[in-house]
Amino acid sequence: MYQFSYAEIMEEGVAVSKDRERQVLDRSIALLKTAMASDGGNYGKEAVEAIYFTRRVWIRFIEDLGNPENQLQDELRANLISIAIWILKEIEKIRKRESSNFQGIIDITTIIKDGIK
Question: Which run of H or E residues covers position 3?
Answer without folding.
Answer: none
